[in-house]
Amino acid sequence: MTTVEKLYEILKSCELCPRKCGVDRTKGEKGVCRSGLNPVISSVGPHFGEEPELVGRHGSGTIFFTNCNLGCVYCQNYDISHLGYGKEITVDELAKQMLFLQGILCHNINLVTPTHFVPQIVKAIKIAKKQGLKIPIVYNCGGYENVEVIKLLEGIVDIYMPDIKYSDNEIAKKYSNASDYFERAKESIKEMHRQVGDLQVEDGIAVRGLIIRHLVLPDNLAGSQEILRFISEEISKDTYVNIMDQYRPMFKAFSYPELNRRITSLEFSKVVGIARRFGLHRGF
User: Fold this and answer.
1) Cβ proximity of 93 and 40 under 8 Å
2) Residue ranges covered by each domain of the chain
3) Whole-prediction pTM value?
């Protein structure tokens, strides 16, 4: 079986993510991510708000996929991820969008929230490569991945960009409905790093490797220290870590008093200080 065939076989009893809903998406059944057979996207275009090494001069070529396998109560893109804003397209149309982004000189194809559409994405990449797609593929995910699916992406994805949202599974369950989040994130990110290694940059542009994002939450709800320890000791001290300070209450966050505020500059600087103490030095 080819990689595409293996991935489409998974769709018949879907286990693309750790939830392993077991629904037959080839027959239109839907699980937690509320997604069927065809990919659904909300937007396509150059993005200039990503990491500098992805943006470069011409932007990161983002494709935002609709729906999500997580349930973050503070989701910044809740209209896309929770409310399902987007348009259903074919795999051939998805391939054309990738070629369009390359044609307008974007530095990469940045697949935003791709987890629940991996088979369709891989098929589209294969089609697009036959038609001349050459720029790096970025897998921009929430970190809640099935490691067996990540293994199937070896040689297809050039740059992995997962979040690590939490180190405490009770917190992960409360705010993202993912009670095994940290274990699944750790094993998947280890596999990602095995495949592509630390971030490689040529002429200021990322070409291959791992970027980890970590959003600082109010009152250290993310458990940042344990996350940064894991990256330093079990991945690499040379890992590019984007410690993000842009948390703001969105979606249902107003229902949780502890989440209903922005973080302080002191909270952010403490997390950066922890990263430095662990020997991390790239990103921030």
Assistant:
1) no
2) 3-283
3) 0.97
pLDDT score, position 102: 98
Would you say residue 284 has pLDDT above 90?
A: no
Residues in the chain: 284
The DSSP result for 149-177, as a single string, is HHHHTTTT-SEEEEB---S-HHHHHHHHS
Asked whether 241 and 283 are in contact (CB, 8 A), the reply is yes
Alpha-carbon separation of residue 24 from 11, 13, 90 (angstroms): 6, 5, 18
Separation between Cα atoms, residue 149 and residue 259, nearest integer Å: 32
Across 74-195, where does the E strand assignment appear?
87-88, 109-112, 137-141, 159-162
Residue 39's pLDDT band, with cuts at 50, 70 and 90, is very high
Q: Domain spanning 3-283: which CATH class is it, in words?
A: alpha beta
Q: What average pLDDT does range 7-22 have in this prediction?
A: 98
Closest CA to 199 of 54, 37, 5, 79: 54
**What is the token pair recorded at 46?**
């150059």
